[in-house]
Amino acid sequence: MNSVQDLLVILARRHAFADLEVLTEDPEIMAVCEFGQRLLSLDAEDFAVEAREVPPVLRRRARACTMPQTPREQPRGALESLRPAYGLLLEVIAVRWHRRELSPMVAALHIASEYLPLLAFEPVLGHAGDPVRWPAGLGAPGSRFGVIGDRECDHTKAEQSAANRSLRVAGEPAEGWRAYFDRQHSQVAGALATCVASCRNPCSAMEWVAPDLRDDLSLRSRVALAFADTPLVRLRHAAPVGHGFGVPSPEEVLEAWERSRLALAKTEVGKAATEEDGFPLPGLPSLFSAVAGAPVPVSALLDDIAAHLVTLLRERVP
Fold first, then answer.
1. How confident is the model at residue 52 (pLDDT cuts 50, 70, 90)?
2. CA atoms of 293 and 128, how far apart (whole Å)
3. What domain of life (predicted)?
């Protein structure tokens, strides 16, 4: 190592954005580091708007991964399509794996499991679960979707409450909209999957789905629900993030994923998890693509932020 610049470049290439930010006094480099760290930490509500020092092309790609902060905000970001967000989740999982940061990696897997049913519904809905654009059939006569206290409905009380809120949140102010996404949207994802995959007392809530699409949607939704119950995702409950104990080892993660792949492979869609696609958890991108019914490539957004930082460092640091 010949210089301070060499050290900082190594940090950038390792996606050590927080460390790099501490070691530089250049305002633009610091801003790009903050941008990258918020993406890596999946702390990304409005950073794409604030980070003016970041090249617009990187901001646009980041915005595609974020939820709109008001009911009418344009563009719709991750409510238009969840595929960019899942590409970023995959990249975050890979970076955390290579850095052996397994607690935040398992947390990212947990997030992926919560919203995976919406990835399954996206081709049928034409969007990624945008409450502003819910199909009218969800609230059609005979539908129990969002009917609180209906004992014939297979949804939990929390899912019923969340579904009910989702039908009217488009008319709420920005504060209510954000609160819904903070606390309830992931429960609606699970509720939708239950409707098509495992409901014991079907109502009219899903009659808007074209008959020729129902079997495929049901299968992909069942796999999305099954992923949330795999040994891999259950590691999240055995690893209390932030408490400094119970963090799984790399060997435990790989062993849990192998058991998960065997469980998922019982269906044609879930069998995608057994593919050897070169990912640190082999088959995970293939599984997400199968559930989505469309390719979900691993993002290169964090890599491109790192490359931009390397360029800045080469220009500005001796």
1. confident
2. 13
3. Bacteria
Residue-wise pLDDT for 198-212, tens only, equals 999 999 999 999 999
pLDDT in tens, 129-175: 999 999 999 999 999 999 999 999 999 999 999 999 999 999 999 99
Query: Got the DSSP string for 122-150?
Result: HHHHSSSS-GGG--GGGGSTT--TT-TT-
Considering the entire predicted model, what is its pTM? 0.95
- The tokens of 282 are what? 């082999």
Q: Please state whether the peptide bond connecting residue 173 to the residue before it is cis, i.e. omega within 30 degrees of 0.
A: no
Report residue 306 as tokens: 């790192």
Q: What is the Cα–Cα distance from 197 to 191, expressed in whole angstroms?
A: 10
Distance CA 184, CA 202 (A): 23
Distance CA 66, CA 47 (A): 9
